[in-house]
Amino acid sequence: QVRLVESGGGSVHTGGSLRLSCVESGYTNTYTPYSMGWFRQAPGKEREGVAIIDSDGVTTYADSVKGRFTISQDNAKNTLYLQMDSLKSEDTAMYYCAADVPRVGGEIAPPSLVNFWGQGTQVTVST
Predict the structure, then answer these.
(1) 22-72: per-residue pLDDT in tens?
(2) Is 105 helix (H, G, I), strand (E, B) or coil?
(3) CB 71 within 8 A of CB 45
(4) Which residue intervals of the chain are DSSP H helices?
């Protein structure tokens, strides 16, 4: 079973930064996910894709975070990161790490197509 454990959430003011981490375990030498990514879900909203990175290093971002968020991966540490800069109140949400995230029409796939999830870490942005 693939397991994803997240950390790095917290509370910041508008314009601040946070870096989320997701430690991956449960992989074998015969399996690795095609892509890894981050989703978020705000109160009263549906879960939405934020960013993904595939095995070739190609990244895809939601329009709402382009230019502010950066997804990356340290393969030696089995860790996925999401660097979040210039945070806005609209970024307040529970953020989830995900494995095996496809693209649909060049965009991040809906959550129903994701195979593995982390437990979530809360990000709160306030003035």
Answers:
(1) 998 876 655 566 789 999 999 999 999 999 999 889 999 999 999 999 999
(2) coil
(3) no
(4) none
Separation of alpha carbons 103 and 90, rounded Å? 24
Phi/psi at 39 (nearest 5 deg)? -120, 165
Token pair, residue 75, equals: 């393969």
**81-98 average pLDDT score:** 98
Beta-strand runs (E) in the chain? 3-7, 10-13, 18-25, 35-41, 48-54, 59-61, 69-74, 79-84, 93-99, 103-104, 107-108, 116-117, 121-126
Hey, what long-range contacts does 61-70 have (CB within 8 A, 24 or more apart)? 62/108, 64/90, 65/91
pLDDT beyond 70 at 77: yes
pLDDT band at 106 (very low <50, low <70, confident <90, very high): confident
The contacts of residue 97 (CB under 8 Å, 6+ apart) are 4, 6, 20, 22, 36, 37, 38, 80, 117, 118
Contact 113, 37 (CB under 8 A): no
